[in-house]
Amino acid sequence: MSADPCRGAESLLQPYLDRVLTEAEVARIDGHLQECSYCSDRYVFERSLRTAVKSCCSEEPVPDGFVERLRRRCSDQA
User: Fold this and answer.
1) Rounded (to 5) percent helix, strand, coil in the chain
2) What is the extent of the structural domain holding 32?
3) What is the tally of structural domains in the chain?
């Protein structure tokens, strides 16, 4: 992680939720989340947001091309 442990944890939060980190990275994030209430609260929020989006948006099929348009729009804003 970076010199600022919260910045390092924040940059790994999405990959942590996606379960694509190495065991060492998961251990570092787990430890940080146990010690930092701010990051722990962000993790709970992000996890809850994913659950809400999945439950309200997974019943109907996504229109053709939607995912690609969304990716392009998101990468344009980065």
Assistant:
1) 75, 0, 25
2) 5-77
3) 1
